[in-house]
Amino acid sequence: MHNRRSFIKSTGLATAITAIGCNASTQKNTSKIQEYPKIISTWKHLEDNKAALDELLSGSSVLDAIETGIRMAENNAEDLSVGVGGLPDRDGNITLDACIMDSAGKAGSVSFLQGIRHPISLARKVMENTPHVMLTGAGAQQYAREIGFPLEDLSTVESNKAFAEWKKKSIYKPKINIENHDTVGMLAIDNNGNLAGGCSTSGVAYKMHGRVGDSPIIGAGLFVDNDYGAATATGMGELVLRTLGSFLVVELMRQGATPAEACKDAVMRIVDKGNYQDLQVGYVAMDKQGNTGAYSLVSGFNYTETTKSDSVILDADSYLD
Ligand code: SD4
Tens digits of per-residue pLDDT, 87-103? Predict the structure, then answer.
């Protein structure tokens, strides 16, 4: 299980896919300069990472790169846990959560948002154009409408079909490696070593109406401290919320842990508290030098790392097989 990595060919990337010679679990948090710029994201987001990297390479800011990459994931109707085509709650409503953080430590977030295609962009507007960090529900939608975001039906044939199928039995037992994954948490570092991050999701499928997970909560689904590093989470949000996981990962890096060690320690914090049976949580992290790492509760979590020379999907080490 340990040190397992898989390299999956990207059809969407012009760059050749090659194995990089470092291992997430053995990277050291040293001053070694990694290849800049770099994008890392939860799950298989090759094309979204590439969009983010291209944005950076065109001269845009690291925050623009994050917004661009995540907007691409939100637009992808085949991704059943982000944006358009996201799986609904148990009443059939698609409700979206997202947050964003920049290099200056500013943060913006929206939660329990309906009918808005790009929650990440709205989170950025909250961060940049309001005195607040977080808007939720009808208020978030009202703000989106006021600043010109269109109201849209985000359901698709696929998401409606999946919901109709689920309603036949209405059993709520989230299986995150199987039906609820693809939530995008993305971290980026630019040529100057500046970090930014974002996270966007439709949340756990068939949740209670009004349920909000970790993804829009600063410190839970995402945390960026430009002096030390950044982290983002995926999986069963309740476990991440109870341990303020992404803040914990960054704090552990601040205390000297490598990204991989910090992700592992944050997962072990969940294990120590118990009540994690049959649930998944995965963390990815990047330090100020661009070193990266990941760890998950259960095997099956993978993440995507993209530089100018490589784009690879990596299997995270895990506590349970
Ligand atoms: C949530 N953390 O709403 C999200 C779900 C997720 O991949 O990450 N799915 O709890």
Answer: 999 999 999 999 999 99
Contact 246 CB / ligand 1 (< 6 Å): no
Distance CA 203, CA 216 (A): 10
Quickly list H helices, 130-236: 137-146, 157-169
153-163 pLDDT, tens digit per residue, is: 999 999 999 99
Tokens of 199: 């996270």
Edge to edge, the sheet with strand 302-306 lists 134-136, 107-113, 96-101, 195-201, 184-189, 38-42, 302-306, 311-315
> Is 306 close to ligand 1, i.e. is its CB under 6 Å away?
no
* Domains within the chain, CATH numbers bracketed: 4-320 (3.60.20.30)
Please state the atom number of ligand 1 nearest to the C-alpha of residue 185.
8
Residues contacting 77, CB < 8 A, separation 6+? 84, 85, 156, 158
Active site residues: 183
Neighbours of 18 (CB within 10 A): 11
pLDDT in the model for residue 77:
85
Residue 313: what residue type? Answer: I
d(CA 109, CA 219): 11
Burial of 11 (0-12, 13-18, 19+ CB in 10 A): exposed
- 237 CA → ligand 1 middle, Å: 5
Quick one: which atom of ligand 1 is closest to the CA of 237?
Answer: 10
Task: List average pLDDT for each run of 10 residues in the chain, which is 321 residues long.
Answer: 34 30 36 78 97 97 98 90 91 97 98 98 98 98 98 94 93 77 94 97 95 98 98 97 98 98 98 93 97 97 96 96 93
